[in-house]
Write a structure and sequence with these properties.
The complex is a heterodimer. Chain A is mainly α. Chain A is built from twelve helices and no strands. In chain A, 74% of the residues lie in helices and 0% in strands. The longest helix of chain A has 32 residues, at 10-41. The longest helix of chain B has 46 residues, at 10-55. The chains are: A mainly alpha, B mainly alpha.
């Protein structure tokens, strides 16, 4: 549908221009706060603002000192390593658990499907503060607070629903006659899963894994309760930085994270295109 | 792929057909089971534990069990009978032996300030010989007042209502009537109201900002729509902390917005605006963070609305405005409902953004829960606040699942 009919009168054209301007402002509101961070992270001065030199594009006003600060700091480096370890392990767990559950839920024989689905994706709905406090109470008793195991388990809980949702979405377009064909051809359930189902739903599985990975890298609320100084992650270190010594190093980290999220997003977009190519409509 | 074609023998075919439906059902359940068990153990159980925490104050209920028992028949007005004092002396002697006086006192201290100290002193006196009543009264005359006994009675009950009442700024008097606490002490109920208010405001702002944008994206050429969608999804993908940090950089006293206003001569350097550390900063940043969750459901509904209905209405003589209101909007309604519910549900539990941007006036209920878990260590009250928040969210989630369907929840657009 065209937004503006050809026969539109001047009043309608004016209204339309106003509508477009309004949308432009909303897009600016969405994007500008993120865009502003990028030049700020190259600020030569330790301020959270654009200096006069930066506005006149004076090269002396820009520097990489906050990035050097980040890569040179043992605290940030170990936080980055911890984050990657926790995200990798929890993503593997979440992907296996989530994919299996999605395969089960997609079968017509699955009893109480609606209720089970609602329960399995509830970690996305229950406020993180409640999940965090509850896990803190229980994990403290089990000696898991401040350990990698505690962080991995809690991040798996929060990441698995993402995998479940993306794989379920892929399976909804899945042609079950392929499974029947394989079964008639004599393939056992494991062979069918390995040779037929998984290759077809692979894009969904991988994008679910990317969602889980991203959610773990960004997890802060539960990590505040379950983590500790020894298992410091990047978000937890950012939290400390934002509350205590506000330094532009944080903005350098933020810029790197924005770049990372754009990269992950590009991967998911690519996978979606792949997924479309693989399943005949 | 190399498939080996095997002729199934008639016997195994019949067997598998008979066994079919039952074993398929079992297979489906077995596939779901690992995640189900995992989430039950590490997510549902901890939340259940939190809920139980709200109504069971184990140190008091367990440590002073005899006293709580003896207080059953007490009228709440007079000094309790000697049997109650005896029970307290016995309980405290045991508590002293296993070092739990400190924990009991810490919990009771939330109800009556100073009780921790009083209890420690009384425990020392309880160790002596002879009738308990005079010894306890000699240790501290405050044991004459019903207040302190009522606190033990109410906190020690299982289930105890003390925390849930306190979460709503209510308190039971020694004689049992429930009444609101003095206005100066009301903190939780106003915080719940503020949380609801901020959630509502953020939802309405997201709708006002998101609706036109979703409409635009749904009605432009696919290529343009792709680019515009990217501008919605990139913020969604960006770390919550990054977006909150961005708003800190923008709203600070020496931040980008104030500097720009001063630089443009619109503002005197002396009276920079207080943009951060208030409820407004919380609302602005939360609207920014939650806006994609409004745009995407609206867009996915608008995309499916065929334009012919609008054209039909117009060709039948409806003005564009009338056709829009009577034909278009009703078809978007499911998207509006799901977007608003989603944003409202998510906003209620916000913690990081209010903590970093909200200052005193922009805190929400989650911040109070975190405070009681980590700082005041009043876990019972933290759990009660959490239970009330969870109840509200679950009711809304139930409505959401009813309206939208749990299996239709999508991520990332």
């Amino acid at each position: 549908m065209a937004l503006l009919p050809d026969h539109a009168g001047p009043a309608q054209r004016l209204l339309h221009a106003g509508f477009l301007a309004y949308c432009g402002l909303v897009f600016a509101f969405l994007i500008l706060p993120l865009v502003v961070i990028v030049p700020l992270s190259f600020n030569a001065e330790p301020y959270f603002t654009l200096s006069r030199g930066m506005l006149t594009l004076d090269p002396a006003a820009f520097s990489l000192r906050w990035y050097e600060d980040f890569f040179g700091s043992a605290v940030w480096r170990s936080a980055a390593v911890n984050s990657l370890i926790v995200a990798t392990v929890s993503t593997l767990l979440a992907t296996v658990l989530g994919t299996l559950a999605a395969l089960g839920l997609s079968r017509p024989q699955m009893p109480c499907r609606q209720a089970v689905t609602a329960l399995l994706i509830s970690p996305l709905i229950v406020p993180l503060i409640i999940a965090g406090a509850g896990m803190y109470f229980v994990f403290a008793r089990l000696g898991l607070v401040g350990t990698f195991a505690g962080l991995v388990l809690s991040h798996t809980v929060l990441g698995a629903p993402f995998v479940l949702i993306t794989v379920t979405a892929t399976l909804s377009k899945f042609d079950t006659t392929l499974v029947n064909a394989a079964a008639i051809s004599g393939a056992g359930p494991v062979t069918i899963l390995r040779r037929v189902t998984l290759p077809i739903i692979a894009p969904g599985v991988v994008s679910g894994a990317i969602f889980a990975f991203g959610s773990s890298l960004d997890e802060i609320v539960v990590t505040l309760f379950i983590g500790s100084g020894e298992t410091q992650t990047v978000p937890r270190q950012m939290w400390v930085g934002l509350r205590e010594q506000l330094s532009p190093t944080i903005l350098a980290v933020a810029t790197l994270l924005i770049a990372l999220s754009v990269l992950l997003l590009a991967c998911v977009g690519l996978l979606r295109r792949l997924g479309r190519g693989r399943t005949p409509a | 792929m190399t498939a080996v074609l095997v002729e199934p023998s008639p016997r195994s075919l019949r067997r598998s057909l008979v066994a079919g439906s039952g074993s398929r059902r079992r297979a489906a359940v077995l596939l779901v089971l690992p995640l189900l068990v995992f989430l039950l153990a590490l997510f549902v159980l901890p939340i259940g534990y939190l809920l139980w925490n709200a109504v069971d104050e184990a140190p008091v209920a367990g440590g002073l069990s005899r006293t709580v028992q003896a207080l059953r028949g007490w009228d709440g007005r007079s000094q309790p009978a000697d049997a109650v004092f005896d029970a307290l002396a016995l309980d405290l002697r045991e508590a002293e032996a296993d070092d739990s006086v400190q924990r009991i006192g810490a919990r009771l201290n939330f109800e009556v300030a100073g009780l921790r100290r009083i209890l420690r002193r009384t425990a020392a006196a309880a160790a002596g010989e002879g009738p308990a009543t005079p010894r306890i009264l000699a240790a501290d005359p405050v044991w004459r007042s019903p207040q302190i006994w009522a606190a033990i009675r109410d906190v020690g009950a299982v289930p105890t209502m003390v925390n849930l009442l306190a979460a709503l700024d209510l308190k039971r008097s020694p004689t049992g009537e429930i009444a609101a606490v003095a206005p100066d002490y009301r903190v939780n109920a106003p915080l719940f109201l503020r949380t609801l208010w901020i959630g509502l405001l953020v939802t309405l702002l997201c709708l006002a900002l998101g609706y036109p944008v979703a409409y635009l994206i749904a009605n432009v050429a696919p290529r343009t729509a792709g680019i515009l969608l990217l501008m919605v999804v990139v913020p969604l993908w960006t770390s919550l902390l990054v977006r909150t940090a961005a708003w800190m950089a923008l709203l600070q006293r020496n931040g980008v917005i104030n500097d720009a206003l001063v630089g443009l001569g619109l503002l005197d350097d002396g009276d920079r605006l207080a943009l951060i550390f208030n409820a407004r900063a919380t609302v602005i940043a939360m609207t920014h963070i939650l806006l994609p969750f409004m745009i995407l459901p609206l867009y996915s509904v608008m995309r499916t609305i065929p334009p012919v209905y609008m054209r039909a209405a117009e060709s039948l003589g409806a003005s564009r405005a009338l056709a829009y209101r009577r034909v278009y909007v009703p078809q978007v309604a499911p998207g509006i409902v799901s977007g608003c519910l989603l944003v409202f549900i998510m906003s209620l539990g916000y913690y990081i953004t209010p903590a970093l941007l909200g200052g005193e006036g922009g805190q929400m209920i989650s911040n109070m829960i975190a405070y009681h878990v980590r700082e005041s260590l009043n876990w019972g009250l933290a759990s009660a606040l959490g239970a009330l928040l969870l109840a509200g969210v679950l009711v809304l989630y139930f409505v959401y699942v009813r309206a939208v369907g749990a299996d239709r929840i999508r991520v990332g657009g």
